[in-house]
Amino acid sequence: MAEPQRTARNVDPQEIAKFEQLAERWWDPSSEFRPLHDINPLRLNYIDERAGLPGQRVIDIGCGGGLLSEGMARRSATVTGIDLGEAPLAVARLHAEKAGVEVEYLNIAAEEIAEERAGQYDVVTCLEMLEHVPDPAAVVAACAKLAKPGGQLFFSTINRNPKAFLFAIVGAEYVLRLLPRGTHEYAKLIRPSELAQWCRDAGLEVRDTCGMTYNPLTQVYRLNRDVSVNYLMHAVKAGQP
Fold first, then answer.
1. 76: which residues sit within 8 A by CB, 6+ positions away?
2. Is 127 assigned a ligand-binding role in the annotation?
3. Which of 110, 120, 156, 232 is deepest in the core (most CB within 10 A)?
4. Binding residues for S-adenosyl-L-methionine, per the UniProt record (predicted)?
């Protein structure tokens, strides 16, 4: 019975292959992953300010090479990171071991671990991942299932509109070359209204939506209220902790 479940995983093999090929450069701040290094302090602070990471049990969905997972562990959270790419996970495990940071890394789908650990996490993060899966609404539902009542959930992705196409795909991948070409597909991008609806469908209350912008002249990212391209969303699961 286990094999049919595995073949039905909510995963695009081509998306996994993209990041498998780049895995060894994940922790190189001058590599294709430089944008993740640049935005990690911003998103880490956003999460910590709203959820209070010290002492919290956290799961990071689509953790990749572990930038966010390790950052949250350094802030005294107990962290599990999951991903379907074994190469990025191997990099994440090695880096954490060398850095002396404890993170549990697992090769498992969000929907699968949600069946095993329903309601076990104070904080659930799923950043820069939803636009890479065939059924993002199912991932949001799995995230909601993993959270305890009153748990805090954080998502980030890219809006779907002409400006986002121009800045996040044409600008970032082809002009500025901040990301490898083909990293994002326009049809898979997600409007905030769509993500908010998936949150509500999963029993979550959206508390905040925050934009993230990049200035190519100063090469600086900052958080603001402009959600037209990149954005973060904070939601809370109904019920008392």
1. 53, 54, 55
2. yes
3. 110
4. 43, 62, 83, 127
